[in-house]
Amino acid sequence: MTGKELERYCEKLLAATEGYWHRNEPKMQGRIRVSGGTADYTLILSGVAHYIECKAGSGTSMRLGCLTAPTDGAKQPAGITPAQAAALDHLERSGGRGWVLAALGGYEPVRVPWRVWRGWLAAGVRSVPPLVLLAAGVKGWSDPGG
User: Fold this and answer.
1) From CA 61, how far away is CA 63, in angstroms rounded?
2) CA 80 remoteness from chain centre
3) What letters, b where the CB count within 10 A reaches 16 and e where it falls short, cover 123-135?
4) Which of 2, 57, 75, 123 is surrounded by the most beta carbons within 10 Å?
């Protein structure tokens, strides 16, 4: 599934919630996308704000990204950027919920709670295989354990 296909899939999920949602358009300078921390989508449901970041992968495992930028000036790994991580952390500290809608290869996309994805990154995990990703996915918009 491509990134654009995943975004269309996400919009169908969001429309089914009957909450208020919108796409957060990326910042642009001319025709160049400027990296930022805003998630792909915002959903307001039952008075709770949700950020949803879409990530599509094509290999044998999903690359997760990083919580902080490499200190040696190296290129950031694919996945969640430090700016996105900071925005998701801020939202959750403010009472909202963060999600990563992830699609890997031919598997159905799964919605992973940000606290799970963040836990992987904090533990030094840089990628997860499909079965781990599928096991972490949740249904519904509540925050498991929260």
Assistant:
1) 6
2) 7
3) eeeebbebeebbe
4) 57
The count of other CB atoms within 10 Å of the CB of residue 63 is 16
pTM above 0.85, yes or no: yes
Q: Which two tokens stand for residue 85?
A: 């991580």
Specify the length of the chain in residues: 146
Taking the CA atoms of residue 54, residue 38, residue 122 and residue 135 in that order, the dihedral angle to the nearest 10 degrees is -20
